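FW: tagging you since you asked about this chain on Friday. Here's the raw sequence from the shared folder, copied in full. Didn't touch anything.
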Amino acid sequence: MEEKENNELTIIADDGTEELFKILFFYDNPERDNKRFYFLYREETPEDVIVLGTSDGEHFEYCTEEEQEEAEEMFNTYMDDPKISEARK
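HL: got it, structure written out here
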């Protein structure tokens, strides 16, 4: 389940445990049934970014291998963008 507030997302696992993540960025992919991919990290470990996808904004899932490759390309583009680099300072 998703609760977006202050650029944060709470993921509730099937067993009911909750994890709070910060949203680095997200993108929509119309070629994948408008699936949205979130790049998330925990505040205590910002260097460990994970990617989860959702089709309905409620249920999140890990990416397939193909989706993960695509997400890595998006992440690299994001990290290499000079405007974004400047904004992160």
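FW: The radius of gyration is 13 Å.
HL: agreed, and Strands lie at 8-12, 18-29, 35-42, 45-54, 60-62.
FW: great, closing this out.
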